[in-house]
């Protein structure tokens, strides 16, 4: 079942009025229906993916997200729940997990795919988008290709869905940048990846790599940047406009502002670790935006995070909220199957403009 943007709102509202669809009784008790009917798909280059993916930064990151290997069992439940409910895009990186946990996120994804007990067709449709770090010792196209092969080996998959350059080195090592671009071309030509993308690229550098890849016969399918109600300044919107004009799909990471847009934190109740320091600076000015999010969530019968994620979807991006618990996964899934109205989008945009401070942009994002 598919809907266009012209589908009457009443129809969509009717379909999404409940987290579960009313299904006729059936004698076949073994049938397992999804919590949210995965009727929508979007194109990312040659790939067809769900309108929201799941990010796996926390699957191996101890410093920021407190990862422990004892969490692996629940993370597998998260993965299975996501796939059973139509999510087929999972974003990771070769730098997610360091030291003895090197590549942990990729290893877990590969393991969960192999152990998934659903239909083989569904398993084959899973798209892994991984990012290759621009480490200073990766100086040649061949070394970047080797990084791609290492990621593929960790996941034990034949072909990676989207191979992404994690960040640009244009600001501090321009010669390395060209070598990394050559690496993207080589991994695509060798069939190691189905498509290529970039992450943390600003407007000017995004156009440059698009032109470079196009001249080499390689389409740039995606650009991943921090994009949310807390990160929608002029530069981010310019990136979005460039993506729209060039046919590049924008993947929005940190759609919940590292958790600030969940409504779970206040200036007197902050998360521990480095996030707490950032939240202390920004949260005091977020009340207008959080009030608007709560108003719309209450009216819609949704939660604040679901509204914030849906804002990203309604803006034409693919959000990849991070998940590390079944509860988070279930909540994120509630962002699917409906769309904010134009008036609701305007209300949220205006409220976001009133916030005195925005999310700090990734230091690796170029101009």
From TrEMBL:
Q: Is Oxidoreductase among the key words of this record?
A: yes
Q: Does the keyword Manganese apply?
A: no
Please provide, alphabetically and separated by semicolons, the GO molecular function terms listed in this UniProt record. oxidoreductase activity
Q: Where is the NADP-dependent oxidoreductase domain?
A: 51-349
Q: Name one Pfam family in it.
A: Aldo_ket_red
> What keyword terms does UniProt attach to this protein?
NADP, Oxidoreductase
Query: Origin, by domain of life?
Result: Eukaryota
Q: What is this protein called?
A: Pyridoxal reductase, chloroplastic isoform X1
Q: Which organism is the protein's source? A: Theobroma cacao
